[in-house]
Write a structure and sequence with these properties.
The strands form five sheets. The chain has a six-stranded antiparallel beta barrel. Strands 3-10-8-5 form a four-stranded antiparallel beta sheet, with no helix packed on it. Strands 7-6-4-9 form a four-stranded antiparallel beta sheet, with no helix packed on it. Helix 2 (124-152) packs antiparallel against helix 3. Strand 19 (332-337) and strand 20 form a beta hairpin. The chain has four domains: 64-74 and 298-376, conserved putative lor/sdh protein from methanococcus maripaludis s2 fold; 80-88 and 218-296, Efflux pump adaptor protein, beta barrel domain (Elongation Factor Tu (Ef-tu), domain 3, Beta Barrel); 102-121 and 186-217, OB fold (Dihydrolipoamide Acetyltransferase, E2P) (Beta Barrel); 123-184, Helix Hairpins (Orthogonal Bundle), CATH 1.10.287. By secondary structure, it is α+β, with helices and mostly antiparallel strands. The chain is rod-shaped and about 175 Å long. The N and C termini lie far apart (121 Å). It has helices at residues 21-39, 124-152, 158-183, 373-376; strands at residues 63-71, 73-86, 89-94, 99-104, 111-112, 117-121, 186-188, 193-198, 205-206, 211-217, 221-228, 240-245, 250-258, 268-275, 287-302, 307-309, 315-320, 326-330, 332-337, 340-344, 349-355, 366-369.
């Protein structure tokens, strides 16, 4: 048709005649107004109240912990040390003469008294030598007497008398020596004790210096322990001690010796405790634990499980104050037992946290509760 407008073939979009074009503009305008209103509400832009929009902190929630009421008690302080028993005296018996064992009077393990015969060496040679020496002494005595008589008559000189006197003295010395040789053929115990060893039998030959037996004096028995230097000032001789042997026996003892020079290796001091041991029933060489009371202190009895470490690694206990706040107190262990420990450093009366101490810190608010029955048993002396 002539005069008609040809269609636009350039691909340009036209929205002016679109029915939805006006609606889109209205939606965009409303969205912009909403955004401006939200920004002006004060959530992003500060309002006059600085605390507006800030969420209030939730109230603290108290942690429930088990608490035990404890009152300090007098605690005997005891120093404990490990050691072993040794004989009070020990002697090795050696032969003092050559010869053959003629007899043995005791058996190994027997109790012997001081001076009791242990064994006898054949004494026939020693007896003959003694008889010879005694005969020579008798002759020397007669010669001396004759010299004196002749001197009185003016026949013998002073030199002859002196020679006779010297000969008599030599003969007396020979008799004494022969008697000693005879006495040495009898082996005796130097003190009362137990015959711990006997190495010879009848008929055996022995030489001078050979070991024949050993005698131990175990009454009293001596227990030796090493004490650290920081505890030395708390001990003194005459102090009582309790000795527990590895065999189960327990004996009362007394401190008899405190060393005055520290061991170069361990820097500890030797302490000896004397224990009565009638008939040497307890043998030497037993391991023993010695408990020595050294005074007393005030302390609380607790289970080791209640102990905690402070921020600097110090050992302590957590308690609860009157405001139910946690208090950490540094403590010292003054005595340890198999069923618990005694600690010092807490007030005379304290509420000790026994369960839950690992979940609270100094100053925390807690809710105390009584411990269960099995937990109470862990902290009662």
């Amino acid at each position: 048709m002539a005069g008609a407008t040809p269609p636009d073939q350039t691909g340009k979009l036209q929205f002016d005649t679109d029915k939805g074009a006006g609606r889109s503009k209205w939606i965009a305008g409303l969205f912009a107004l909403a955004l401006i209103g939200w920004m002006g509400s004060g959530v992003i832009l500060p309002s006059g109240d600085p605390d507006a929009g800030v969420v209030a902190d939730a109230p603290d929630r108290a942690v429930s912990v088990a608490v035990m009421d404890s009152v300090a008690q007098n605690v005997p302080l005891v120093l404990t040390a490990e050691g072993q028993s040794i004989p009070d005296r020990a002697a090795t018996l050696r032969a003092k003469a050559d010869g053959q064992i003629a007899s043995v009077a005791v058996s190994r393990g027997d109790l012997v008294s001081a001076g009791q015969e242990i064994a006898r060496i054949d004494a026939s040679i020693a007896e003959a030598q003694l008889l010879q020496a005694q005969t020579q002494l008798a002759q020397a005595q007669r010669d001396y007497d004759n010299a004196l008589a002749l001197q009185d008559r003016g026949i013998a000189t002073e030199d002859r008398v002196s020679q006779a006197r010297a000969a008599r003295a030599a003969a007396e010395a020979a008799v004494t020596s022969a008697q000693d040789q005879l006495d040495n053929t009898i082996v005796t115990a130097p003190f009362a004790g137990r015959l711990n060893d006997l190495t010879v039998n009848t008929g055996e030959s022995v030489e001078n210096g050979m070991v024949l037996a050993e005698v131990l004096d175990n009454d009293p028995l001596t227990v030796v322990v090493q004490v650290p230097q920081q505890a030395l000032s708390r001990l003194q001789t005459g102090q009582d001690a309790q000795v527990s042997f590895i065999t189960g026996e327990q004996k009362a003892g007394t401190i008899a010796f405190i060393g005055a020079n520290a061991d170069r290796q361990t820097r500890t001091f030797r302490v000896e405790i004397i224990v009565d041991n009638p008939d040497s029933v307890m043998p030497a060489g037993l391991s023993a634990r010695v408990s020595m009371p050294t005074g007393q202190a005030r302390g609380h009895f607790v289970s080791p499980a209640v102990l905690s470490l402070g921020t600097n690694g110090e050992l302590g206990v957590k308690t609860v104050d009157a405001d139910n706040r946690v208090v950490f107190s540094t403590v010292q262990i003054v005595r340890a037992q198999t069923d618990g420990i005694w600690i010092a450093g807490l007030p005379e009366q304290a509420r000790i946290i026994t369960v839950g101490q690992g979940f609270v810190n100094q100053g925390d608010h807690v809710e105390p509760r009584a411990p269960a029955q099995d937990q109470t048993a862990l902290v009662q002396p």
